[in-house]
Design goal:
Layout lengths: L9 H8 L11 E5 L4 E10 L2 E6 L2 E6 L3 E5 L4 H12 L2 H15 L5 H16 L3 H14 L4 H14 L3 H15 L9 H18 L3 H14 L4 H17 L7
Antiparallel strand pairs: 1-2, 1-5, 2-3, 3-4
Length: 250
C-alpha cells in the first residue's frame, strides 16, 4: 500500500516522545498527586478511572481524579504505530494503536492523547469511516480539553464525505489561532499545518484554486510541522499549477 496521504500528528508525536525508548528503558514513570505526594514506578495502564502502576515487585492503582501530573515516555508501540501509519501500513497501525488505546486511553500525557487521535486517522485511512467517527468521538469524550484535535478529526471525516461547509466551519478556530501565534510550538505547529492543508482541500473542491494554492503553500512553507500534511500539500499544489498555469503563488 502506498504511503498515507492523510495528515496525522506524527511529527508532534515524535517530538513529544523524545529520545528512543531504548535509551530510556530504565527510566521510571513519575506520578504526582494533588496532595504533592510523588510516586515512581512503571505505569502499566488505565482502567476504571484509575492508573495502574508497578512499584518494585508490587503494584497499586491511583484514581485519575487524585493526580496532578504524570511523566511517562511513549512506549515503543507508539513509535511503531506512527511509523506504520506514515508508511501506509494502515491495518498494522490500527492494530498497534488499538492496543495502546485499550491500555492507556485517558492517561493525561501527550503521547496517549496523540494515540487516541491517531486511531481515528488510521481507521479513516483504512476506509473505516464509521470506525474513525467512533474513535474521534471517544477521543473527545476522554480528552474533552483537546478540542482542536477533535475538530481536525471531524474535519477530516467531513472532507472525505464531501461535506465541505462543515469541514470549513470546524477548521476556522484553528486557522484563526494560527494568525495570532508567531512561533508555534511542537503541539500547535502540526495542527496549523493540517488545518491549512484540509482547508486547501475544501477550497479546491469548491473550485477556488487560487485560494487553495495559497493554503497548500502556507501548510508546506509557513507551518511545515507535519511531514505527511506537507507532502500532500506540496503534491496538490503541483497538480493545481499543472492544471492552471495562470495561478500565482502568494
Amino acid at each position: 500500500m502506498k504511503a498515507s496521504s492523510l495528515p496525522s500528528l506524527i511529527l508532534a508525536a515524535t517530538l513529544i516522545a523524545g529520545s528512543s525508548w531504548a535509551s530510556l528503558a530504565s527510566a521510571q514513570d513519575t506520578l504526582i498527586r494533588k496532595s504533592g505526594q510523588k510516586t515512581e514506578g512503571k505505569i502499566t495502564g488505565v482502567k476504571g478511572g484509575k492508573v495502574r502502576i508497578q512499584i518494585g515487585s508490587g503494584a497499586t492503582t491511583i484514581p485519575l481524579a487524585d493526580i496532578r501530573k504524570i511523566t511517562m515516555m511513549a512506549p515503543p508501540t507508539f513509535d511503531a504505530a506512527a511509523a506504520e501509519l506514515a508508511s501506509g501500513n494502515v491495518q498494522t497501525a490500527v492494530t498497534l494503536l488499538q492496543k495502546l488505546n485499550d491500555n492507556f486511553a485517558g492517561l493525561p500525557v501527550p503521547w496517549a492523547e496523540r494515540a487516541a487521535a491517531m486511531l481515528g486517522d488510521a481507521k479513516l485511512e483504512a476506509g473505516d469511516a464509521a470506525g474513525a467517527k467512533a474513535a474521534y468521538a471517544k477521543f473527545s469524550e476522554i480528552y474533552p480539553e483537546a478540542d482542536a484535535l477533535a475538530d481536525l478529526g471531524r474535519a477530516r471525516l467531513a472532507v472525505e464525505a464531501g461535506q465541505y461547509q462543515e469541514a470549513s466551519q470546524l477548521l476556522q478556530s484553528i486557522l484563526s489561532k494560527s494568525s495570532q501565534i508567531a512561533f508555534p510550538d511542537a503541539n500547535q505547529g502540526p495542527k496549523f499545518c493540517q488545518a491549512y492543508y484540509l482547508q486547501g482541500r475544501v477550497l479546491e473542491a469548491t473550485d477556488d484554486n487560487q485560494a487553495a494554492l495559497q493554503h497548500y503553500l502556507t501548510a508546506s512553507a509557513v507551518f511545515p510541522f507535519d511531514p505527511q500534511a506537507v507532502a500532500s500539500a506540496e503534491e496538490r499544489a503541483r497538480q493545481l499549477r499543472r492544471q492552471d498555469t495562470e495561478l500565482v503563488a502568494p
